[in-house]
Amino acid sequence: MKLRNIGIVIRREYLNKVRKKSFLVTTFLVPVLMAALCIVPIVMMLNAKDKMKFIAVMDDSAVVMPTLQDSESACFVDLTGAPADSVKALLTDGTYDALMALSALDADNSLTFEIFSSQPLGLDLTENLTRKVNDAVENYRVGTYGIEGLDRILKDVKPDIRPKSYTIDEDGKENVSEEGVYTALSMILGLVIFMFITLFGGMVMSAVIEEKASRVVEVLISSVKATELMFGKIIGVALVALTQFFLWIVLTVSIVGAAATFIGEEKFAEITSAASSSAIADPSVTATIDQIAPASSDQSEAAVIISTISSLPYGKIILVFLVFFIFGYLLYASLYAAVGSAVESEGDASQLQLPLTVPLMLAYFIAIYAFNAPESSLVFWGSMIPFTSPIVMLARLPFGVETWELALSLGLLVVTCIAGAWASAKIYNVGILMFGKKSTFQDLWKWLKMK
Amino acid sequence: MNIIECKNISRSFGPKVALDNVSLSIPEGRIFGLLGPNGAGKTTLIRIINRITIPTAGEVLFKGRPITRDDVSRIGYLPEERGLYRKMKVGDQAMYLAQLKGMSTSDARAALVEWFTKFGIESWWDKKVEELSKGMAQKVQFITTVVHKPQLLILDEPFSGFDPVNAQLIREEILALKEAGATIVLSTHNMESVEELCDEIALINKSRLVITGPVDEIRRKEGNDNVEIVYTDADGRHTEVFPRQGTDGNLTLSDFISRGVTVNAYRELMPRMNDIFIKLVTGEENK
User: Does residue A21 surpass a pLDDT of 60?
Assistant: First the structure.
């Protein structure tokens, strides 16, 4: 092996791929999409909070209106007694966002409740108004019994129990956790590594086929050894992948950062801190009935999500991702190179590619199963067997993996990777100079055994 | 001095024998023709000399010692199955191939600029290969084969794809490279260029070496070894044939001149390489 030659091959492969339009497009488009995924929900939250609703109330029961209090997000105006038609006209011209029409109390101390609006009000607001009406009627009914302290008794007997999950880390520290975050992360990691291996492994195969189809390979092979050419190509494409990965992270972070400054850091911080402070505070305090905007339960959930996200071991995740990506990629890329060396066009490759596509797909399906049952034995073995382990292990990672498991899985992967590279190099050596005949699995096996 | 010596080279691919005990010597500073019908084993022999394929038996000597990788980098190889990256710029591609042959970036650039200027194709540097015609691409390919001043050039069908004008240009370049001291191995089916260019040849048929030696010797041996004299007298133009052996050219000529005829030509009668090729190859089959 001559390092200088490998270096020259790597350089060409890298520059050639990086200068391609498709590389530039995906490199810059993906961060924009990712950033949009982060920013859009926040912007929507901001807007949802900012919009003050004017609500006209026609309360014939005289029970509900006294309990309604104005808040940041809603302002109630008592229009009881006004003609319904003229109030409805005020809805269409936009003076009011909604009209609450409440009938007088009937014999059962119940009433009919109607909401009119020119545009759909949204589930949050409707539920909130409904709760207010029910609370008011409930209070009224409690009052009619004339029993001292009944309201307090009723409050006491009503339980409000909600689970709060914690994960205990190695130091025994307890962290509030949210299963959804782990599932989402597991899904993202599994998908990203699956995509990277398939995409860049396929890129190696295309590069090999291109050299063979254009007949440039025999010219090259008189200057560099076939193995140098193959590894130069594989490493060159790996560097392309790492460049893209790095740029994605940097660009996404900077776009989100830029957007944060644009929206206003204060508002940004307001959302995050409001969410996290409400988690610490007693739920009963946050559950002030008058607050219309996001219900208290949502807020504490957001806080848990944020605390879960911020307590993730990012260093470990990125390190494990990179290590498993590199070796998983090397294994598959060298096998893809062997397949590419045996064919003269992409079309011919589909059959020989099958033994590579099947384990990759299998790994992806096991990874999906890992979201539901991270501790199952299928998932365990999937994360150990080298052909599926890069993907399944990454999907398992957010749920916590023992260090010895990581080490064993990685060890097996590295050994397989070396064996795969050796076998691929042998097939590649013979394959790239075979022209004219369509190669079969028997041919590959023969080349592998050839001296 | 022989730049390449092949000693008892055999190569088989599974049950198929591609080369069977082939020995030949390629003298330095000459143009050596490697001939043979399709599938005879020429490409395998060339690949063995280039160390692309390892022989099953036998060895290749470069200037008298076993050939090494460094020796191979002093070889320029133009394979029959050749091509360039279609989407890559001509200049970048030539630089890449020159660097793989061990040239530094600056040397490669200087040498390439010189060759591009010589062939009048400087304007192609930034063009993509897919924009070139086949003949144009062949020119670039030829440059990339010779740019690192190889001591040994192996050209497999170098004239295919060229029009007569460009084929002549390549022919002249090959002769110029020989003048400059390079050894050239020419594998071709074009027998006229063998006659015109080659000093020595080897003919391979069905994996075996049939004949090797200087072109003139082979032509004499395979022909009838006669000379002819063409003269004009009062009756018109005549041709007479004598065996070369035992004919003294000076005596014969002065004899004719004294007869008062006009001598138009006196030449050795040698068979065309084309006929020798067909005779040897079909003769083999009839055996």
Answer: yes
Three-state SS string across A137-155, please? HHHHHHHHCCCCCHHHHHH
- State the Cα–Cα distance between residues A337 and A381, nearest whole angstrom: 27
Flag if A222 and B75 touch (Cβ within 8 Å).
Answer: yes
CB spacing of B85 vs A216 below 8 angstroms: yes
Q: Is B88 on the interface with A (CB under 8 A)?
A: yes
Averaged confidence pLDDT in chain B: 88
Q: How many CB pairs under 8 A join A and B?
A: 59
Q: Touching check for B60 and chain A: CB below 8 Å?
A: no
Q: Are A335 and A329 in contact (CB under 8 A)?
A: no
* Buried-state track A14-44, b at ≥16 Cβ within 10 A, e below 16: bebbeeeeebeeebeeebeebbeeebeebee
With residue B170 as reference, give the H or E element that holds it.
helix B164-179
- Please tell me if residue B161 touches chain A, with a CB cutoff of 8 Å: no
Indicate if the pLDDT at residue A293 is higher than 90. Answer: no
Sole residue written with tokens 């240009």? B169
Across the interface, do B79 and A218 touch by the CB < 8 Å criterion?
yes
CA gap B153, B174 in Å, rounded: 9
pLDDT on residue A410: 94
- For residue B102, give the DSSP letter: T
Instruction: Give the pLDDT confidence score for residue A301 in this predicted structure.
Output: 59
Length of chain B: 287
Q: What is the mean pLDDT of residues A292-298?
A: 42
**Nearest CA to CA, how far is A219 from chain B (Å)?**
6
User: Which H or E element spans position B212?
Assistant: strand B208-214
pLDDT band for position A424 (cuts 50, 70, 90): very high
H or E stretch at B98: helix B90-100
Chain B interface test: which of A222, A428, A442 (most B C-beta within 10 Å): A222
With a CB cutoff of 8 Å and minimum separation 6, the contacts of B25 are B2, B4, B5, B6, B212
Mean pLDDT value across residues A417-443: 86
Contact call for B83 and A224, based on CB within 8 A: no
- Chain B residue with minimum CA distance to A11: B96
Residues of chain B found within 8 Å of residue A13, distances taken between Cβ atoms: none
Q: Is B15 on the interface with A (CB under 8 A)?
A: no
pLDDT tens sequence across A241-283: 999 988 988 888 888 788 777 776 656 565 555 544 444 444 4
Facing B79 at nearest CB: one of A4, A219, A451: A219
ipTM of the complex: 0.80
Residue A50 has pLDDT above 60, yes or no: no
What's the pLDDT band for A289 if we cut at 50, 70, 90?
A: very low
Closest-CA distance of chain A to residue B93, Å: 9
Tell me the chain A residues in contact with residue B82 when contact means C-beta distances shorter than 8 Å: 215-216, 218-219
Q: What is the pLDDT of residue A337?
A: 94
pTM reported for the whole predicted model: 0.73
